Amino acid sequence: MAEIQIKNVAKSFGAYQALNDINLTIADQEFMVLLGASGCGKSTLLRIIAGLETATSGEVWIGGRRIDHLSPKDRGIAMVFQNYAVFPHLTVFENIGFGLRMQKLPNDEVTRRVERVAGLMHIEMLLKRYSGELSGGQRQRVAVARALAMEPDVILMDEPLSNLDALLRMEMRAELKGVLAESKTTAIYVTHDQVEAMSMADRISVMHEGNIVQAASPIEVYRNPAAEFVASFIGNPPMNFLPANPQGGGKWSVAGQTWDGPATEKPLLQFAIRPEDMMQTEEGLTAIAKVVEPLGAHILVTCDVAGSQFRVILDSEMSVRPGQKLTLSPQPGRARWFDPETTLAVA
Amino acid sequence: MNPRILPYVLILPVTVFLCMFFLYPFVLVAQQAFSTETGFSLDNFREVVDYWRFPISLQNTLLLAAAVVPFQVGLALLMATMVNRMKRGRDMILYIWTIPLGISDLAAGIIWLAIFDQSGFLNSMMNGLGVIDQPVNLLSYQNPGMVFLAIALAEIWRATAIMLVILVAGIGLIPKEYYEAAEVFGASPWKRFSRITLPLLRPSLQTALVLRVILAFEIFAVVAALGGTLFPVLMGETYAYQFDLRNGGAAAAMALIILAISIGFTLIILRALRVPKGASI
Amino acid sequence: MTDTVAIDASADTRKWGKVLYVSTVVFLCAWVLVPIYFLLINTLSSPETVTSFPKPFWPEFDLASLTFFAGFDGMLSALKNSIIVAAMTMVMSIVIGAPAGYALSRFEFRGKGTFRLLILLTRAFPLPLLALPLAVLFIRTGLDDTAFGLALVHTTLAIPFSVLITFSLFSGIPIELEEAAWTLGCNRLTAFQKVVLPLILPGITASAIFAFVISWNEVFAAAVLTIENRTLTAFLLQNLNTSPLHLKFAGGFILVVPALIFIFAVRKYLFAMWGIANR
Fold first, then answer.
1. Looking at the domain assignment, is residue B109 inside a domain?
2. Is residue A29 part of a domain?
3. Inter-chain CB proximity A81 and C180 less than 8 Å
4. What is the mean pLDDT of chain A?
């Protein structure tokens, strides 16, 4: 059992506050992704869990044991680094077996475990090579194998795929997910790539300016963003926003149209909608197409709605030309509403 | 160990060592220079400055630096640009050109003695060319120009390598794109050198010059090997005060004078070649 | 028609440029090598040939000069002293300097700027002059005329270099390698032993050799601080006026040999040593 609990963790570098009072529980065997733009604190949080960085305050527990005062080697973790950190002076075999040798395991046990994880990562034929003779993808595999060989309670990964090219990244994504599910370890995975986060995570923690804004399943994060930041960060392109004025009785006026919304007394709300959740209707928002980008199965149309930029994704069967006038309505149940004061979602 | 304390523990040995053998001796040397039996006085300075050999040794040291250093800058720049565009044999050429870096000034003096000595190779060569038929004593008091030339050549031979290494390293830091951009805009090779290499090389030139000029004022063994007492220089006089005349106070005063000249020139170089903030690579 | 002429002309200029370039390179190589070759001829000639006129431009491979050098009173012990002092300097400058290089490359700490300034400052001073006050100090502490006393001064000369070189060497090793070792069961010390040290050893060797040569070549402090236990440089300097030519040349040659090996051994690191000065 290796449940991870992060309690009130904060970190400051001088006057700069990198993390504010982080609380997060990660279940045993869960695959948790920390997602955010660079500088949001996701790597700092990971390094605090690893013990490479010391928190200014707060506690970290792994499997019911408080570990934030321990050195990295005593925490029962293994880590995969962004630039792989494969030791250049050791063979692949000795790299994978490095941690096992430090534990002074007998030779045959080391060999057995190295060969097992090498088989898992499909690098059996590389065991005698040095890192200088490996490609980026192979080094990545060695780094993962080295972490798995430790049979850790928790495996920490800091943007492990970001240095690979696009095709290799897609391949490794699926493979890594499979291997980790099989190994039954708890995993924390840091990335700035939302596609990676969506496709791999059991749960995503979206981080922004040292806070966890939302921690939820990928589909929840996508469909029900808890805050404006999540809505404007997740999705490619992200959600559209338009100001909405109250008409009373749960009715809201958005760019001249009146739609059903939440029954609250707020003087102003933000109406938000995903580009693919708008459809062409007889009546609706008036949108002037500005730029039309064919994406294959769909077209992305950047429009002007009441002076704001508004993007919609339509079927590529439709022919839309710049300057054309479109009338659009949201698909039922897909609109989201945010309070501009708190930036949080309003049900 | 606590990562807050660890760096201080690691730098402690060097700090203690430099305090004991670098800062403290300088305090001592100053003390020694400014004091006689009667307490604080400038007598030591008066004594060394009034000595008849002082003006000539100061003049010799400065003249030598003035003759040698600019020539070395030019030569090192030439060598550095040549190495930079070299494709084949770069490593070997660089190795050969940097050999003098490891050779002591005394050995360099002896090497050039083998050339300029009465039975040296220069005499033999001139004989071979039919210029002379009797060996000439080139390094005598009748030939002060020749003594100067021999010392200058030995210095140029020995100490250009250090500038070369600094400048090659500096040129390596200049991104190739700048040259390609300049070439696209139609800059000739000379213009590329004078408008890109030279200005961007300023920090390296600064380092190389400071180091070289300080070493030039420390010149000692090359002169001792080639000129002996024919060509007095400041460092040689200092050595003589300390060793032959057993006058520690005077030697300390000389040391401070050399130090003052070195610092003065360092400041001048730093000022003349300063790089505006934000204009570095 | 005019086009071809123009092309020919530029091809001609380029050809002459190439010839000029290659001959300059060759000339500059000769400029460095020929004087050393002359010293080699003198060293490998009999004492009579060394003082003869005109001179042969080919060594006669006579070992009489070198034998005379080896037999000259005090010369072998001077050679031995030089090696002892240089070896001490080498060990001290690395043992004292490398930890500081590591601290500079791995930690941000208060006073780091001041410390770097102190290191750089030492290079802007005519360091051999330190020998003067130390001569007095050493007499009081009994370190005068000892190899260890001189090695202390030479270490002062070598330390700025060893700090800056090891700083650049350590900086060349990604911190992630050490962090990876920590997560794999190492503490700071074992991570250093198992990961950093093997990677850095060639560079450390180079900077140790550099320290050796700094000491080996140093003349002024050696001459001031030793009397009975002369190093080779101090011994040669002291006897410049009195010793015969072939002795000077043989001694000079012995001084040059380590330099040739040294530059060859450290050629890969030559720029690491100075590249740092550009930042």
1. no
2. yes
3. yes
4. 92
